[in-house]
């Protein structure tokens, strides 16, 4: 087993770098902290450039992660657990984490270059839902996700990274305004279908549409904004047996994209 160096001095430059990245008040986010084995592995696979990866000396460093870091020439060191406790203080203390350069923000062109449907989230603000939607969108063949009025200012947001388990860097996630999102959809000849309770069509009908779609989801309380509703070509509902008021937006997204899975597979081929 590879013997890893251990950072035992709190004055080590790496410790200050971790502290700086961990500050919630940063305005210019160029580096980010990614924690836990699965997100680290996923981000490395997505091509995210890491400065260094660390592990607490209180637990063995995962062999699979060490192997990947070695193969990608990513430096790995352990940190004395007392320093880890000082750096993260009252919050959750990760056993493995890394400092990485934030990739350039995704653009509409990145989505246009891909073949799948486009997911548009209008006013969806719960980060856990957004993270789940990113993972599901990637798994079920969507071309990308457009976030409108999400209160997220960067996909490097640690909450979003946690919620998506690191998959936020594996799919284009574009932060946009309503007008520019609508302009992109129209420019690329897509029909926008809004998911809501009183839709014109059943979600089952989505599987019969051969064209690329923009699937619009609003917040669970308010639904999509009037501007998006007016720009939509139609609305889609998910039949439910009980009198449940609504489904979680990430669940609705999964159902809709699953109905589109055949089209996504054909487009990918």
From TrEMBL:
Q: Which residues form the signal peptide?
A: none
Q: Does the keyword Methyltransferase apply?
A: yes
Q: Name one GO biological process term.
A: response to antibiotic
Taking the record's annotation, the residue ranges forming a coiled coil are none
Q: Which UniProt keywords apply?
A: Methyltransferase, Transferase
Database matches in SUPFAM superfamilies: alpha/beta knot
Positions of the Thiostrepton-resistance methylase N-terminal domain: 5-114
Boundaries of each tRNA/rRNA methyltransferase SpoU type domain copy?
A: 118-258
**EC main group:** transferase
Q: Is Transferase one of the keywords?
A: yes
Q: What is its EC number?
A: 2.1.1.230
Q: Which InterPro entries match?
A: Alpha/beta_knot_MTases (IPR029028), Ribosomal_eL30-like_sf (IPR029064), rRNA_Methyltransferase (IPR051259), SpoU_MeTrfase (IPR001537), Thiostrepton-R_Mease_TSNR_N (IPR006795), tRNA_m1G_MTases_N (IPR029026)
Which is an annotated GO molecular function term of this record? 23S rRNA (adenosine(1067)-2'-O)-methyltransferase activity
* UniProt-listed NCBIfam families: NshR_TsnR
Q: This protein is called what?
A: 23S rRNA (Adenosine(1067)-2'-O)-methyltransferase
Q: What is the lineage of its organism?
A: Bacteria, Bacillati, Actinomycetota, Actinomycetes, Streptosporangiales
């Amino acid at each position: 087993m590879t013997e890893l160096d251990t950072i035992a001095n709190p004055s080590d430059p790496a410790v200050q770098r971790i502290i700086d990245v961990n500050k919630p008040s940063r305005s210019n986010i160029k580096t980010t902290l990614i924690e836990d084995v699965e997100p680290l592995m996923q981000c490395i696979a997505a091509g995210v450039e890491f400065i260094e990866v660390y592990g607490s000396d209180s637990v063995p460093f995962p062999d699979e992660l060490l192997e990947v870091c070695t193969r990608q020439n990513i430096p790995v060191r352990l940190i004395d657990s007392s320093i880890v406790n000082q750096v993260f203080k009252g919050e959750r203390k990760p056993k493995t984490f890394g400092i990485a350069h934030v990739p350039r923000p995704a653009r509409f062109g990145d989505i246009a270059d891909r073949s799948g449907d486009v997911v548009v989230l209008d006013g969806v603000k719960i980060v856990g839902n957004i993270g789940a939607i990113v993972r599901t969108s990637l798994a079920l063949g969507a071309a990308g996700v457009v976030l409108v009025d999400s209160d997220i200012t960067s996909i490097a947001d640690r909450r979003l990274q946690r919620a998506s388990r690191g998959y936020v860097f594996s799919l284009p996630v574009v932060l946009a305004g309503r007008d520019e999102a609508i302009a992109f959809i129209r420019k690329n000849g897509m029909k926008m279908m809004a998911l809501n309770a009183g839709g014109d069509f059943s979600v089952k009908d989505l599987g019969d549409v051969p064209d690329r779609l923009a699937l619009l989801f609003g917040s669970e309380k308010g639904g999509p904004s009037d501007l998006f509703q007016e720009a939509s070509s139609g609305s889609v509902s998910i039949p439910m047996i009980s009198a449940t008021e609504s489904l979680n937006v990430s669940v609705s997204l999964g159902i809709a994209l699953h109905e589109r899975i055949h089209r996504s597979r054909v487009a990918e081929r």
